[in-house]
Design a protein that fits this description.
Strand content: 15-25%
Helix content: 25-40%
Strand order of the largest sheet: 4-13-12-11-8-5-6
Structural class: alpha/beta
Distance between the termini: 36 Å
Radius of gyration: 21 Å
Number of strands: 18
Largest sheet: 7 strands, mixed
Shape: globular
């Protein structure tokens, strides 16, 4: 492929000049493998981008997409509907925790977060508490690439280039403490950091705060697992002060922690959950927001009869082809017991990752379920990412942190290969 053919595509979150000087191109995917443009096989160590737990090139999903396109390929869900979205909502409601049984469909995780914020604001306004406009988020968080998501997020490089943010967002401290640098599962240290929410309540007044949004495991920053007691404390404070608790499960949803959602794994039921990525096994862009029935009912019942209750939506909300892909994906998860498989594989996966602890280049390790991360010394991330790719392993990097989240269909041999490549490359990485 000539360099001219690469120039037109402005790639996201990419050093474009560096990439186009020495491109890394995948031309085929199957199971847990990619094939690059030179014909080399590359093991998918991150499910694409946390999207493909059922493995690549699933014929069941391809067939469902094909059949749906020929039956009804598109319909706007503005004042009209198509069956796949309603069936998908019913199926998701059976998976979500508690009474989060009302589903609003979006096009991605980013606009799922935007939708969750709008729902929170609309809910408080419907109840006569329109002063609740502030949102509490967290440092080292990622909540999408929209203006709202960028403001909510706590990754400084995502924020510093733009100079404008939405107002009213407050950030709690992150839980990536030095004491948690080599922690498998939930850390014992850092649960008290949830009291940052109480500090904001005391300083700004609970009557001004609409919601608190967190990832149960902060994924894109490097698998920061919520410390013991942290989510429970947030839940208690939100209950006490009338604040909605939002879990961003765009990465952790659909079995990554072993349960359908991390909320179930950690035993804390939020008021709103965002999801995307693995919803369609990465085959179609789609996100969703699950909402407690009482929140939905408060918004809907506050509007006059016959009126639109929630002035929000997207061209692709509930897209019938995306919904068909999601339904086929859910069928694979259920029929093949992939969430239970993730539980069985997790100890083997985490043993492989934490087996890197002795390497001088590795400055930190974290993980739970089928997601883990390793920290390298400052400035080593780009070189390590390229070296791992050349050695046959795809790893997602954020700065100098490598993030691993393999498909659930990987076997023990695949995990052993992943561990071998990691050790071989990181042994040669400068500490």
């Amino acid at each position: 492929m000539s360099s001219n053919s690469l120039a037109e595509h402005w790639m996201p979150y990419t050093a474009n000049r560096d990439f186009k000087a020495a491109p890394r191109l995948f031309v085929k995917a199957d199971g847990v493998w990619y094939t690059d443009h030179a014909g080399r096989r590359v093991l998918d160590g991150c499910s694409g981008l946390f999207c493909v737990p059922a493995g690549h090139a699933r014929r069941e999903i391809a067939q469902a997409i094909h059949d749906q396109v020929l039956e009804i390929d598109y319909i706007s869900h503005y004042q009209i509907g198509a069956p796949p979205a309603f069936e998908l909502a019913r199926r998701l409601a059976a998976l979500t925790p508690g009474d989060l049984n009302r589903l609003f469909f979006t096009s991605s995780g980013s606009d799922a977060v935007d939708t969750a914020l709008k729902i929170a604001l609309a809910y408080h306004r419907a109840r006569g508490e329109g002063r609740r406009l502030k949102v509490v988020a967290r440092e080292r968080a990622f909540h999408g690439a929209t203006l709202a998501g960028t403001t909510l997020g706590g990754l400084v490089n995502n924020r510093r280039a733009f100079g404008i943010e939405i107002p009213g967002v407050l950030h709690m401290r992150h839980t990536g403490l030095p004491a948690n640098a080599f922690c498998r599962g939930q850390p014992e240290e850092g649960g008290d950091l949830a009291d940052d929410l109480k500090r904001f309540i005391d300083h700004h007044g609970a009557e001004t705060i609409a919601a608190c949004i967190v990832e149960p495991i902060a994924g894109s920053t490097g698998a920061l697992v919520a410390p013991r007691g942290y989510l429970e404390r947030l839940r208690s404070l939100c209950d006490e002060h009338g604040i909605l608790l939002i879990f961003d499960e765009v990465i952790t949803g659909f079995g990554r922690t072993g349960s359908a959602f991390a909320a179930q794994e950690f035993g804390v039921v939020p008021d709103i959950v965002t999801m995307a990525k693995a919803l369609t096994n990465g085959c179609m862009p789609m996100g969703a927001v699950a909402v407690r029935e009482g929140i939905h009912d408060a918004i809907v019942d506050s509007a006059p009869a016959g009126a639109i209750e929630f002035f929000h939506g997207h061209t692709a909300s509930g897209h019938p082809v995306a919904a068909a892909a999601a339904l086929a994906t859910l069928g694979i998860y259920e029929n093949e017991g992939l969430f239970a498989r993730a539980v069985r594989l997790s100890p083997i996966f985490l043993d492989a990752v934490f087996g890197l602890r002795d390497l001088p280049a590795v400055k930190g390790l974290r993980g739970q379920g089928m997601m883990a991360a390793f920290d390298l010394a400052p400035g080593r991330g780009v070189g390590a990412m390229k070296a791992l790719f050349d050695a046959g392993l795809h790893v997602k990097f954020t700065g100098d942190t490598g993030i691993l989240a393999p498909p659930f269909v990987i076997d023990e041999d695949g995990l052993a290969r992943m561990a071998h490549i990691l050790r071989d490359v990181l042994e040669k990485t400068e500490a």
